[in-house]
Specification:
Blueprint: H1 3-18, H2 27-31, E1 45-46, E2 54-55, E3 58-60, E4 65-71, E5 79-85, E6 88-91, E7 94-98, E8 102-109, E9 117-120, H3 126-129, E10 141-147, E11 153-159, H4 165-170, E12 175-180, H5 182-191, E13 199-207, H6 219-224, E14 230-233, E15 236-237, E16 239-244, E17 247-254, E18 261-267, E19 275-280, E20 283-291, E21 294-296, E22 301-307, E23 316-321, H7 330-341, E24 367-376, E25 402-409, E26 412-415, E27 427-429, E28 434-441, E29 448-452, E30 458-463, H8 467-470, E31 489-492, E32 497-503, E33 512-518, H9 521-525, E34 529-534
Parallel strand pairs: 1-16, 2-6, 3-7, 4-8, 7-12, 13-17, 16-24, 25-28, 27-34
Antiparallel strand pairs: 4-5, 5-6, 8-10, 9-11, 11-12, 13-14, 14-15, 17-22, 18-21, 18-23, 19-20, 19-22, 23-24, 25-26, 28-32, 29-31, 29-33, 30-32, 33-34
Helix pairs in contact: 1-7
Bound molecules: CU-O-CU linkage and copper (II) ion (CU) (2 copies).
The site of CU-O-CU linkage has 10 residues, from strand 9 and strand 33.
Length: 535
């Protein structure tokens, strides 16, 4: 371990720990009674329905379309992506694409800043990827055309202009891309689900209620990530949804800039309700896995099957985030450091743009997200089929693992001690090779949601995981249920190392530039990002 980085990390982490919003413990969560609604949540807003148009409506990508990034009135956020077709309008449409089809979209930039759309999770050439090397200036357009090469899954799209992604995302620019194929349709038939009714897309996020539409990160926010104090599902706080006594497919995306959710479902009697994990970032698992909780970091997705058939009419079930300590064990280290360095963290080159009050709800606090109200009695659903897909087990790379150190020094989060800059020499990966990467997080650090563009990650092992992760392991490699699927983003806890296999098969002509970065949007904007050139 590098003494300088470690000391820097201690100093800053001490400053973060001293900040109420980021105190390592969970005073707030721990003091909450074991009642139905953590933080006394009253669910008084119906969850918006995703329909044939409007906010988060389903939009078929079978014909070319224009995605306009700009201000809107008819959406929960000041900005949205809008599309229009046949007299109908959508905001942040759920794009639906058939595997193998060609997606043709034109980004129209109606913002007052540069932007670009990145297709998160797709196997795509670097020009269409939207990696930020090319952007659309205000008023300009950018054309995308690419075959949808991925298997079915819940992918998403969001801005990627280097250094200003966090603000655009936070002010409302995000959307889901559902890819659909024969396996997924067969599952839909087996489970008798209907999109928008018993097959729901839930996008999680958080905002600051006092200034919901503004984004003004302080120096601390830039280091810790921008946390809100109001939890949103599909743009709505305190949302509820009426359901029937059958199974529901919940496809959940964490689109929060920085917050990690530890998702669980709690019944009226206070007990947690098991659910089946059907899929992750890149589609269906081979087999459903029964879980009581799953962690979902920024940009990660989970596909859950929740069965309400044993519930009584009038009951409710709450989608919660359970308490956890993101800085597990670090609070002690930080407390020690706080004694002599209190308030002394160095802003360095951090750009302090605002004086906003930091969120008062720390990462890891217990949260109530969405209430399901059992309102209708219907025939129970069959359980999910025992085989969901033909997903093969991951295969490790032939050579030694390539190490990536996630660290903090001189006020900046780094990968292999470097801060991103557009001109830097990329990491070169020979195409058509299979590699194992070892993502190593320092003990004095934060959780980092590490994301690679263009290629799937398959988790091989988790090492030195915190206790609350080890407790969820499903095998001797320390993997979690969510690690059994195809991933494009993996959360690496402080002190933890995650081994991932990557197949760099690449059919695109010429060198292709991708990015490896933390999906905590403030870490990404701050340069916790590395260019990866597949040559
Ligand atoms: Cu979802 Cu480079 O990002
Ligand atoms: Cu991405
Ligand atoms: Cu990070």
């Amino acid at each position: 371990m590098h003494p300088t980085s470690r000391r820097d990390a201690l100093i800053t982490l001490a400053a973060l720990a001293a900040w109420p919003a980021f105190a390592g413990g969970n005073a707030r969560a721990a003091s909450g009674a074991d009642d139905l609604c953590a933080n006394g949540t009253v669910f008084d807003a119906p969850l918006p329905r995703s329909g044939r148009d409007g906010w988060m409506g389903y939009f078929d990508t079978d014909a070319p379309f224009v995605l306009r990034a700009g201000s809107v009135d008819a959406a929960p956020f000041p900005l949205a992506y809008t599309v229009a077709r046949d007299g109908r309008r959508w905001q942040n449409p759920i794009l639906v694409a058939r595997a193998g089809s060609t997606l043709r979209a034109t980004l129209a930039n109606a913002l007052d800043a540069a932007t670009i759309v990145h297709w998160h999770g797709l196997t795509i050439d670097s020009l269409n990827d939207g990696n930020g090397d090319r952007v659309a200036t205000p008023g300009a357009r950018f054309d995308y055309a690419f075959p949808v090469r991925n298997r079915a899954g819940m992918y998403w799209y969001h801005p990627h202009p280097h250094g200003i992604t966090g603000g655009q995302l936070h002010r409302g620019l995000f959307g889901v891309l559902l890819v659909d194929d024969d396996e997924d349709r067969a599952l839909g038939t087996a489970l008798a689900t209907t999109r928008g009714d018993t097959d729901l897309v839930l996008v999680l996020g958080d905002r600051r209620a006092s200034s919901r539409s503004s984004y003004a990160p302080s120096a601390v926010d830039r280091q810790a990530g921008y946390l809100g104090d109001e939890m949103l599902v599909n743009g709505v706080a305190h949302a509820w949804r009426g359901v029937a006594t059958r199974g529901y497919r919940l496809r959940i995306l964490n689109a929060a800039n920085a917050r990690t959710f530890r998702l669980a479902l709690r019944g009226d009697d206070g007990t947690l309700i098991p659910f089946a994990l059907l899929g992750t970032d890149g589609g269906l698992l081979a087999r459903p896995m029964t879980c009581r909780e799953v962690f979902v970091a920024s940009a990660e997705r989970v596909d859950l099957w929740v069965d309400f058939s044993t519930r009584a009419l009038g009951d409710s079930v709450v989608l919660e985030s359970l308490a956890f300590d993101p800085m597990h064990g670090e609070s002690q280290a930080s407390d020690a450091a706080t004694a002599d360095t209190h308030g002394g963290h160095d802003h360095g080159s951090m750009n302090v743009t605002g004086d906003a009050m930091p969120s008062t709800i720390n990462d890891g606090a217990r949260l109530s997200l969405l209430q399901f109200r059992i309102r209708e009695r219907v025939a129970a659903s069959p359980p999910p089929p025992s085989t969901l897909s033909s997903l093969a087990a991951p295969r490790a790379g032939g050579d030694d693992a390539v190490p990536f150190r996630l660290s903090f020094a001189k006020s900046r989060w780094r990968i292999n001690d470097r801060v991103f800059d557009m001109q830097q020499e990329p990491l070169i990966v020979p195409r058509n090779t299979r590699q194992t990467w070892l993502l190593r997080n320092y003990y004095t650090s934060m959780p980092h949601a590490m994301h690679l563009h263009g290629f799937a990650l398959r988790v091989l092992a988790r090492e030195q995981s915190p206790d609350f992760i080890t407790a969820l392991a499903i095998d001797d490699q320390g993997r979690l249920a969510t690690d059994a699927g195809v991933k494009d983003t993996v959360l690496v806890w402080p002190g933890e190392s995650v081994r991932v296999a990557i197949d760099f098969t690449c059919t695109f002509a010429g060198p292709q530039d991708y990015l490896l970065h933390c999906h905590n949007a403030e870490h990404e904007d701050g340069g916790m990002m590395l260019r990866v050139r597949v040559a």
